[in-house]
Amino acid sequence: MEVCRALEQGDKEEERILSDISSSLKLFERKRSNLIPLLQMIQKRHGYIPPMGMVLLAQHLDLSPSHVYGVATFYNQFRFNPPGKHPIKVCLGTACHVKGGEIILENFERKLGIKAGETTRDREFSLDRVACVGCCALAPVAIVNDKVEGHMTPSKVEGIILSLEIEKEKKKREADKDDTE
Ligand code: FES
Questions:
Q1: Per-residue pLDDT tens over the stretch 45-94
Q2: 24, 52, 74: which is the final residue of a domain?
Q3: Nearest CA to ligand 1 atom 1
Q4: What are the distances in angstroms from CA 143 to CA 40, 85, 86, 113?
Q5: Are residues 92 and 176 in the same domain?
Q6: Are 42 and 107 in a shared domain?
Q7: This prediction's pTM
Q8: Which one of 22, 24, 150, 157 is most buried, counting C-beta atoms within 10 A?
Q9: Does residue 90 share a domain with residue 61?
Q10: Which residues of 148-177 are buried (b: 16+ CB within 10 A; e: fewer)?
Q11: 90 and 173 both lie in a single domain
Q12: How sure is the predictor about 2, in pLDDT bands with cuts at 50, 70 and 90?
């Protein structure tokens, strides 16, 4: 039920985003060299690039959607799923990679049931791999809700997810209580 509500809200949100993309594109010249700056603009405004956003962009620049998709997926900086309420980023820069960053990423993937670049169906969590975040002495590093978590281990992954789930449950109970009062 909760997932259905999240999906419904997600659809409305995507409609709003697409209409915003449509009007923002009108402000830019229809030059093919604008492709990457426009992808960056969409990502900056909305945190991701919806598939239909790429179609609108393709129409605007008179390119094929598959060309836009090919360029967008070539670069790691773009994501194609909406960011979750709790964004999780795992650093895979050199120091973190050497200290087991991949294992940390795999643990998050297993725990959340999604792959890097994806968002959980309830839109609570999104998971991304990132390049060095500048805290190499703390490797391996993850950024959870914009907070740096250093010296990550598989059990720390469990702990982080568990505490976020407890927090969510607590908020839900408080909201249910408010509704019944
Ligand atoms: S490589 Fe991960 S913080 Fe530098």
A1: 998 999 999 999 999 999 999 999 999 999 878 989 888 999 999 999 99
A2: 74
A3: 93
A4: 22, 13, 10, 18
A5: yes
A6: no
A7: 0.78
A8: 157
A9: no
A10: ebeebeeebbeebbeebeeeeeeeeeeeee
A11: yes
A12: low
Q: Is the CB of 143 under 6 A from ligand 1?
A: no
103 Cβ below 6 A of ligand 1: no
Q: How is residue 100 written in tokens?
A: 């087991």
Query: Which residue reads 């990550």 in tokens?
Result: 152
Q: How far is the CA of 137 from the centre of ligand 1 (A)?
A: 8
116 within ligand 1 shell (Cβ under 6 A): no
Let me know whether 69 and 93 are in one domain. no
96 close to ligand 1 (CB < 6 Angstrom): yes
Which burial class, exposed, middle or buried, applies to 45 when counting CB atoms under 10 A from its CB (0-12, 13-18, 19+)?
Answer: middle
Ligand 1 lined by 92 (C-beta under 6 Å): no
What 3-state class would DSSP assign to 89? strand
- Confidence check: pLDDT of 156 > 90: yes
Number of the ligand 1 atom closest to the C-alpha atom of 91? 2
Q: Are 25 and 60 in a shared domain?
A: yes
Q: Is the CB of 94 inside a 6 Å radius of any atom of ligand 1?
A: yes
Question: What CATH number is given to the structural domain containing 150?
Answer: 3.40.30.10
User: Which residues have C-beta within 8 Å of that of residue 135, sequence separation ≥ 6?
Assistant: 91, 141, 148, 150
